[in-house]
Amino acid sequence: MADFTFHHGGVSVPSLEQAIEWYGTLLGFTVEHRFYIEAARSHTAMLRKGPLRFEIFEVEGAAPLPDERRYPPRDVQTHGNKHVAFQVADLDSFLAEMEQKGADIAMVVRESFGRGCFIRDCAGNLIEFVEGVA
């Protein structure tokens, strides 16, 4: 079987500049490089935080994120990609930091199967953070 590793996740946003600022301020990502994808008519940036990469697309004429994609339990009712998830050491500390920074917290999960949360980026895209799972 072919060997591979994870490279990046990606989201579409209405404003690349606003997203770069949001991902930098709230999550500590920096711009690795910027480019234009002619076929998609997309101003694009690859953001990086340590080994993590996240690709942000500002596509000319793109439709806004539908409301049902903004809440995790409704989002999974539609087929397709859902979200990316990052691991945090301590959920409560992470939530306190996100609240202090004004993050839009969509949902907090504290269940026997695990703990985590979803936040919405500046365009409403869901990002999951899970506590200490292997």
Overview of the molecule:
This is Bleomycin resistance protein. Residues 5-132 form the VOC domain. InterPro entries: Glyas_Bleomycin-R_OHBP_Dase, MMCE/EMCE_epimerase, VOC_core. Helices cover 19% and strands 40% of the residues. It has 134 residues and is an alpha/beta fold. The strands form two sheets. A four-stranded mixed β-sheet has the order 1-4-3-2, covered by helices on one side. It has a four-stranded mixed β-sheet with strand order 5-8-7-6, with helices on one face. The protein starts with 8 loop residues before the first strand and ends with a strand.
Present the secondary structure layout:
Elements: E1 9-12, H1 16-27, E2 30-37, E3 42-49, E4 52-59, H2 72-75, E5 84-88, H3 91-100, E6 104-111, E7 114-120, E8 126-131
Parallel strand pairs: 1-4, 5-8
Antiparallel strand pairs: 2-3, 3-4, 6-7, 7-8
